[in-house]
Amino acid sequence: MLLLKGVESGYGESMVLRQVHLDIKPGQVVCLMGRNGVGKSTLLRTLMGILKVRSGSIHWDGKEVTKWDSAKRARVGIGYVPQGRDVFPQMSVRENLLLGLETAPKGAKEIPADVLGMFPVLKTMMDRQGGDLSGGQQQQLAFARALAAKPRLLLLDEPTEGIQPSIVDDIRDVIIQIKNQGDTAILLVEQSEEFVRSVADYIYVMDKGAIAMQGEPEELGLASFEHYLTV
User: Which positions, given as ranges, span the membrane (predicted)?
Assistant: First the structure.
């Protein structure tokens, strides 16, 4: 589905990603771990086309998409929930969700019922402004907005950061539900090893802008990569 070969990217004169190779197969939940500042968010921004690839290539369904812009990547089915939620605070929950339909299959005008079913609290808040929601509710809104377009790949940047435990459990349940449906792959940036092991099919560990370790959860013992996660 998505394949990165030797990708390098960064900001200005600063190179952050260095020779990153990554492979995501249909329906997989792939988790990306590592300390703060090692390039995880930069990788998602590069995958979404927000940052340009300086070297290497990105392939989607066997076709090279390295030079595609963000809008084109969204239209072929790549969704993105950035760190910090990024909801529109002056717009209602309903209006925020409807924005997610802009990259949905042609003709889609209604928020999918199954998406609302994953986040039942949002159904009771459709007319509230996004800025009036709690941090956890905003995270659920951002997640639901990305799912409204029925993406084939969803990029999630630390969706549990700063969220109360009950909503962390809700987000875990949604990820597992998506995984069981098998229609949408997920690339998840996450710091919690316990959370990662509960949802992941495959794990990549980053250090200094490169992939330091990778493997299935049962292959990677904590002792083997703990030093890549601690400050």
Answer: none
